[in-house]
Amino acid sequence: DPVMVGNSLTYTLTVSNLGNDPAIGVVLTDTLPVGVTFVSASASQGSCSGSAVVSCALGNIAKNANALVTVVVTPQSVGMITNNAAVTNTTPDPNSANNTATQETRVSVLPSIAGHVASSAGTPTASVNMTLIGSQTASTSTNGNGFYQFPDLTSGGNYTVTPARQGFVFHPQSQSFTNLTADATADFQSVACIFSITPRNQS
Hints:
This protein is flat. The termini are far apart. The protein has no helices and 18 strands. The chain has strands at residues 3-4, 9-16, 23-31, 36-43, 47-49, 53-61, 66-75, 79-88, 100-108, 113-118, 129-134, 138-141, 147-150, 157-164, 168-171, 175-180, 184-185, 188-192. The strands form four sheets. It has a six-stranded mixed β-sheet, with no helix packed on it. Strands 10, 13, 15, 17 and 18 form a five-stranded mixed β-sheet that branches. The model has no long low-confidence stretch (mean pLDDT 95).
């Protein structure tokens, strides 16, 4: 957040069964915002259909298990948009208050650079200092999910993103973008460095 108008926006929805019994006949209904064009919808189990309203029949979800639904849209106008999702199933639910979710997203006319920093195993790396230089300069840090973003950059500019954190090296060392006119992704792999000093005996 934000996403540039005309660029892809991905909603990732996690449906979790926190109850003591299997959830039977789970259906996720995702009401897409006005002003977006539907691109695709997929689920880790079951199937999805629809465009303005996406319905995903996820089948049964075991206790402490979850299903993932990914919906991709393209915003067509600038401003705030709201996505609404709800889950139903045929199993009695003692806590229906957590069966709905809302996500607001700002759609901008300007591009952003965003990405994740994680280990080769996919573990997010938090508190990485991310530096942006070029047509604009800025700095930020990765959050607990290893995510960072430089929003609302001047369109057509040239930019370089570099990560840094003591005790880590990163691959690649930096990423550059020339004539940025659309949202761009710059992911980095982190490698923890462990140093040790061994005394050397002299005789």
